[in-house]
Specification:
The chain has 3 helices and 11 strands; from the N terminus they run βαββαββββββββα. The protein is an alpha+beta fold and 210 residues long.
């Protein structure tokens, strides 16, 4: 490198995987039918980070469309790990420890939170429109927020909050420790998603983990 060369090294980055699942229209139709049945059976749902929205309990892995979905997500989670040079020893296995559905009507949102005791977490959008509530990802480097100059524009290099607009068929995976939330749904249509936690378990513990 000569003295005139300038490099901008993006160090200590936080990786977020985003992709579209194959044949997602068919998959989403099955998931919508299953989630609608859960919603009707337990209209009160449960409350965690959800504000105004409905949230299910843990989905049933024995339901074929749930099993198919979980398998597709675990394949992408493995790709996430391989991109980080995870060794994946033969006696260890990625498992989806839990997954749940979210139905968020107008003005529903999710407060900023993390997923404790997890390795990877994420969300899949079964039904979503523009302005139905962006996913907000929070810069974990709190010290970087202490003092900032004025910016001519916001971009990935200077913003403490990055957002991803939901789109049906899109999967997002990120480290479980990454703070995140969901903005208000500003539309009249429900935003329907599935969130999940993934861990790396010893193969002898896989059955008991579920």
């Amino acid at each position: 490198m000569n003295e005139k060369t300038i490099q901008f090294l993006q160090l200590f980055s936080t990786t977020v995987l985003r992709c579209r699942l194959p044949d997602h229209a068919r998959l989403n139709a099955g998931l919508l039918e299953y989630i609608d049945g859960l919603h009707r059976a337990a209209p009160d749902g449960r409350t965690r980070s959800n504000v105004l929205g409905w949230q299910s309990g843990n989905l049933d892995f024995d339901v074929p469309v749930v099993a198919e979905f979980a398998s597709l997500v675990l394949e992408r989670a493995r790709e996430y790990g391989l991109a980080h040079s995870w060794a994946f020893p033969s006696h260890m296995q990625l498992i989806m420890r839990e997954l749940w559905a979210n139905v968020s009507g107008k003005h529903a949102q999710n407060s900023v939170h993390i997923h404790p005791n997890g390795l990877l977490s994420g969300v899949y959008y079964v039904q979503a429109e523009n302005e139905s509530g962006d996913l907000s990802l929070i810069d974990p480097r709190k010290q970087a927020w202490v003092m900032q100059p004025e910016f001519s524009e916001r971009n990935q290099m200077n913003s403490p909050i990055q957002t991803i607009t939901p789109e049906a068929g899109t999967l997002i995976i990120f480290p479980s420790w990454l703070e995140h939330g969901v903005n208000q749904n500003l539309t009249d249509a429900e935003r329907i998603s599935i969130a999940f936690n993934i861990d790396l378990f010893h193969e002898q513990m896989v059955d008991s983990a579920r």
